């Protein structure tokens, strides 16, 4: 009987204190949010869940997120598009950008600088597009 009472006490105590959930995978706190699409420019917190923005607000509780980034003094913006890149990299030392060593690996510079989309308007040309696709496009995020 005493074991049953203790078990019931534990069950009732647990029911009175719901488990803390963290609905957000990431919380970016205190950054200056710029969103040209919605004409937004304000210091806000950005909560992200399942890879998408779940909430924008002035003060989102950091305990609601698994990970928090302090963005005070930084700009928080949608990904930038770099419309002039040379990403058809390769090891042909007789060439520069088109399959040569001057071409950049897109994932090596883009994301860490806030660029989510790059445009290479012709380093490969039509004849080498298949190689460009295999070497760059198919392996880039």
Explain how this protein is built.
This protein is α/β, with parallel strands linked by helices and 141 residues long. It has three helices and seven strands. The protein has helices at 2-16, 106-109, 129-135, and strands spanning 24-35, 40-49, 52-57, 65-70, 75-76, 80-82, 115-118. The strands form two sheets. Strands 1, 2, 3, 4 and 5 form a five-stranded mixed β-sheet that branches. A hairpin with a 4-residue loop joins strand 1 and strand 2 (40-49). It is elongated and about 55 Å long. 19% of the residues are buried.
Output mean pLDDT: 83
Total strand count, please?
Answer: 7
Taken in chain order, the helices and strands follow as: HEEEEEEHEH
Instruction: Indicate the low-confidence ranges by residue numbers.
Output: none
Largest sheet: 5 strands, mixed
Q: Which structural class is indicated by helix and strand composition? A: alpha/beta
Shape: elongated
What is the radius of gyration?
24 Å
Residue fraction in strands: 25-35%
Provide a count of the helices. 3
Helix content: 10-25%
**Termini gap:** 61 Å
